[in-house]
UniProtKB/TrEMBL annotation:
Protein's gene: LOC100520442
One Pfam family of this chain: 7tm_4
Annotated GO biological process: cellular response to lipid
Protein name: Olfactory receptor
Ranges where the G-protein coupled receptors family 1 profile domain occurs: 39-290
Family per similarity comment: Belongs to the G-protein coupled receptor 1 family.
Length: 312
């Protein structure tokens, strides 16, 4: 069918061996995707509308919600296309673009979580300097730095994908494109594409995690030194939501990494399920965690609801 196998489109896969159940599997995935869009979209609208939330902490939260929305929008079309319509073919360019978005936004999210940890560190360790250090200009620069780092750092390996010939099977194991999977289909020397991501993740995601851990050690040290129990409780409450988001993100990253590295004998459906959890669980839980644990967001939601009722 394809005289030049290198030019043949890639073929996406839903749940291997469970093709008959794809329509049913699409229902919870559609609910999860819709919940991610609704939750993060509502969070962005709330932060934009409520002047009381125009603070560095919530600006970073808006960046986190925007990143989660973009990841979901990047993966949702192909996932539902495979499960609903059995549209499995994807062109090289579209596949590489999707992989670029997925991997770069993962690094962006790690950078934003680091920025949020630094925000809490300055707020608790140096409260008198907080307003002077984290001005709106500084917040924008930090956010731009996180996005530029994510989108530029992954670019070298994605660009190399365009130059590779693909003479192996074009079937991918997921309903979306991942760099490490596309790379294995290439009939070329992929040494750079195998080594560069390891170095990149070590100096971005893992380093971010270590700095976040160190910052919270210093935060806890500062909290313990506070005079009253009420002050300690108030300081810790401002960090709980962020700690929850950090744990969910890095636990899913580590879990997916372990399955890919050491789960060779694990059924393919487990690999696929873990990848869906990685892409859907953190974006789904982040707005829920902040809505439950952050009083300012709760008050903002109540004010918007009361305005809506009065308007009706």
């Amino acid at each position: 069918m394809w005289p030049n196998i290198s030019a043949a489109p890639f073929v996406l896969t839903g749940f291997p061996g469970l093709e008959a159940a794809h329509p049913w599997a699409s229902i919870p995935l559609l609910v999860a995707h819709s919940s991610v869009l609704l939750g993060n979209g509502s969070l962005l609208s709330l932060i934009r509308a409520e002047r009381s939330l125009h603070q560095p902490m919530y600006y970073f939260l808006a960046m986190l919600a925007g990143t989660d929305l973009t990841v979901t929008l990047a993966t949702m079309p192909t996932v539902l296309g495979v499960l609903w319509l059995n549209q499995r073919e994807i062109s090289h360019g579209a596949c590489f673009l999707q992989a670029y978005c997925i991997h770069s936004l993962s690094i962006v999210e790690s950078g934003i979580l680091l920025a949020m940890a630094c925000d809490r560190f300055i707020a608790i360790r140096h409260p008198l300097r907080y307003a002077a250090v984290l001005t709106n200009t500084h917040v924008v620069r930090v956010g731009m730095g996180a996005f530029v780092r994510g989108f530029l750092s992954i670019l070298p390996v994605i660009l190399r994908l365009f130059s590779f010939p693909y003479c192996h099977s074009h079937v991918l194991a997921h309903a979306f494109c991942l760099h490490q999977e596309v790379m294995t289909l290439a009939c070329a020397d992929t040494t750079f594409n195998r080594l560069y991501p390891v170095v990149l993740i070590s100096f971005t995601v893992f380093l971010d995690a270590l700095i976040i851990l160190f910052s919270y050690i210093l935060i806890l040290k500062a909290v313990v030194g506070l005079a009253s129990g009420e002050e300690r409780s108030k300081a810790l409450n401002t960090c709980i939501s962020h700690i929850g988001c950090v744990l969910i993100f890095y636990v899913t990253v580590i879990g997916l990494s372990f399955v890919h590295r050491f789960g060779r004998n694990v059924p393919q459906v487990v690999h696929v399920t873990m990848s869906y959890i990685y892409f859907l669980f953190p974006p789904l839980m982040n707005p829920i965690i902040y809505s439950i644990k952050t009083k300012q967001i709760q008050h903002g939601i109540l004010r918007l609801l009361s305005k809506h009722r009065l308007g009706c």
